[in-house]
């Protein structure tokens, strides 16, 4: 059967129309105009839920009612701190891969502590981040900004290719950046305005309202009298950054950033990281400052609502994706008090003295020498070059050292670098191995028994050991996400690949975990 030219044109048009309809029906979900990553230092699920009667409608309740909530989030490595947590969030990888084992570590060449971003650059972050991959995918068109009271969180969240990273200077309280990032004119304008650093001497932190003072969650009954804190003297900025008032300053700066940048106003996806504080005042314990902790959550609730409003007003709720989670640790639990008064097994493990005893033992076995160079935290660093020159088998020496240290009181277990590497897939060792990095970690890691306090005289560190589970939430809110509460545990290294799938870009280059399901 032959078709005329007119019939052929009609058939061709119909085929084209059907193809267009089919294509429209299969269009991929729209990518967000803006991703807002909210990292809340020391946020806990139990406190978040405990103080819920004190909240308004625009912050936590809005998030919990409209978001996909994972109630039991965890980190895939042992003992996270703020720096290692943020690095994991943005890279989708543990310290073993991304290089950030903590806020500081020991430089083996100088035997001096090194801070992870002391120079204001992400040089020690050895892998790409979700924001970096967004920059690559859009050929640099995406805007990436990071705002945090703390330099480590600001720099690590910004990644390698950000347009701006801003934090509060520890001395002046003014917002600052480094030469690695651009310093926009609106930064100076904000610092010359009526911000917190200008008013710090007159700032007073008191309970938000009477409800905070009357509400009592803690069994210690510590809410006996209202608190009143001022910020004066040399430590005023440090105290301010560990108070609920710092969150108001963060929101103020974020609002200024939104007003003075093009974040979220064109079809190219942008990225904004914001860090808030949910720890206790001046890093004190719950027993010392219970009402302050309650008020911190109340004020944080207000600032979250303020952030949601500012972003949605500029970008639109259906065009923004919020990711809210915690750094996964708590300063408020660091002191166990006098456990011996209650006949609970406890004591002090002094790693400096343990180092001296261990060196005496090794000298008796291998000959007089200084086998240990330094200690930091619970880690011991050996003189590897000296050991090699003496033709001593390193594996044998490390095993002997571990056996010796296991005999000391307060030691639960001892892990050599080789044991961590070889036992990477053993469940009890995996989280410790993930927290270890061959370039920056020690040759031996001493695991102090629960209830005992690690004391390091060389570095001045003092830390109570607890293995208690601390749950925290992971929340996705915005776009067309269906509200749901998920009880199954999930690790936060899944955030980066999940965002990558939503943005239709590659996951960070050291991220080997799968995206979470149910988000898009």
Tell me, what's the shape?
Answer: globular
Give the end-to-end Cα distance, rounded to a whole number of Å.
Answer: 48 Å
Structural class by sheet pairing and helices: alpha/beta
CATH class of the largest domain: Alpha Beta
Kindly provide the radius of gyration, computed on alpha-carbon positions and rounded to a whole number of angstroms: 26 Å
Q: Regions with pLDDT < 50 over 5+ consecutive residues? A: none
Secondary-structure arrangement, i.e. CATH architecture of the largest domain: 3-Layer(aba) Sandwich
Task: Give the total of beta strands.
Answer: 21
User: What integer is the average pLDDT?
Assistant: 91
Structure, described:
By secondary structure, the chain is α/β, with parallel strands linked by helices. The protein folds into two domains: 34-330 and 470-503, Alkaline Phosphatase, subunit A, CATH 3.40.720.10; 347-464, Gyrase A, domain 2 (2-Layer Sandwich). Helices cover 35% and strands 19% of the residues. The chain has 19 helices and 21 strands. The strands form five sheets. Strands 1, 2, 5, 6, 7, 10, 11, 19, 20 and 21 form a ten-stranded mixed β-sheet that branches. It has a four-stranded antiparallel β-sheet with strand order 13-14-16-15. Helix 7 (151-158) links the parallel strand 5 and strand 6 (164-168). The longest helix has 26 residues, at 290-315. The chain is globular, with a radius of gyration of 26 Å.
């Amino acid at each position: 059967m032959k078709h005329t030219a007119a019939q052929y044109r009609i058939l061709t048009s119909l085929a084209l129309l059907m193809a267009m309809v089919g294509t429209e029906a299969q269009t991929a979900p729209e990518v967000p105009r803006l991703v807002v990553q909210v990292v809340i230092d020391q946020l806990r699920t139990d406190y978040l839920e405990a103080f819920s009667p004190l909240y308004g409608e625009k912050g936590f309740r809005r998030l919990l009612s409209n978001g996909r909530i994972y109630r039991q989030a965890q980190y895939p490595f042992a003992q996270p701190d703020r720096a290692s947590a943020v690095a994991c969030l943005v890279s989708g990888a543990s310290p073993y891969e991304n290089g950030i084992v903590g806020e500081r570590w020991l430089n083996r060449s100088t035997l001096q502590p090194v801070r992870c971003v002391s120079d204001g650059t992400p040089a020690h972050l050895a892998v790409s981040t979700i924001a970096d991959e967004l920059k690559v995918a859009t050929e640099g068109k995406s805007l990436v900004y990071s705002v945090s009271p703390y330099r480590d969180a600001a720099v690590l969240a910004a990644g390698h290719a950000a347009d701006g990273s801003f934090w509060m200077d520890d001395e002046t309280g003014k917002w600052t950046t480094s030469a690695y990032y651009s310093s926009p004119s609106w930064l100076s304008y904000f610092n010359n305005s009526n911000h917190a650093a200008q008013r710090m001497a007159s700032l007073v932190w008191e309970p938000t309202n009477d409800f905070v003072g009357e509400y009592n969650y803690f069994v210690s009954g510590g809410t006996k009298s209202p608190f009143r804190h001022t910020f004066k003297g040399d430590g005023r900025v440090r105290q301010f950054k560990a108070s609920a008032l710092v969150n108001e300053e963060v929101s103020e700066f974020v609002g200024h950033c939104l007003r003075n940048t093009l974040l979220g106003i064109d079809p190219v996806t942008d990225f904004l990281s914001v860090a808030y504080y949910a720890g206790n005042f001046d890093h004190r314990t719950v027993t010392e400052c219970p009402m302050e902790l309650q008020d911190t959550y109340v004020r944080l609730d207000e600032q979250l609502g303020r952030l949601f409003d500012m972003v949605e007003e500029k970008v639109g709720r259906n065009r923004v994706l919020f990711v809210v989670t915690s750094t996964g640790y708590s300063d408020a639990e660091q002191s166990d008090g006098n456990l011996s008064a209650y006949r609970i097994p406890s004591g002090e493990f002094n790693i400096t003295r343990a180092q001296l005893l261990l060196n005496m033992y090794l000298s008796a076995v291998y000959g007089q020498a200084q086998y240990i160079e330094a200690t930091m935290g619970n880690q011991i660093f050996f003189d590897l070059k000296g050991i090699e020159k003496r033709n001593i088998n390193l594996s044998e020496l490390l095993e002997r050292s571990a056996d010796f240290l296991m005999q000391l009181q307060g030691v639960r277990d001892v892990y050599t670098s080789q044991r961590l590497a070889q036992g990477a897939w053993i469940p009890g060792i995996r989280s410790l191995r993930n927290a270890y990095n061959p370039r920056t970690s020690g040759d031996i890691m001493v695991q102090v028994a629960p209830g005992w306090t690690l004391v390091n005289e060389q570095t001045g560190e003092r830390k109570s050991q607890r293995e208690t589970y601390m749950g925290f939430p992971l929340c996705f809110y915005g776009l067309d996400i269906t509200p749901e509460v998920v009880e199954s545990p999930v690790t936060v290294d899944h955030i980066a690949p999940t965002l990558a799938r939503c943005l239709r870009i590659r996951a960070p280059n050291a991220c080997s975990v799968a995206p979470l399901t149910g988000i898009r």
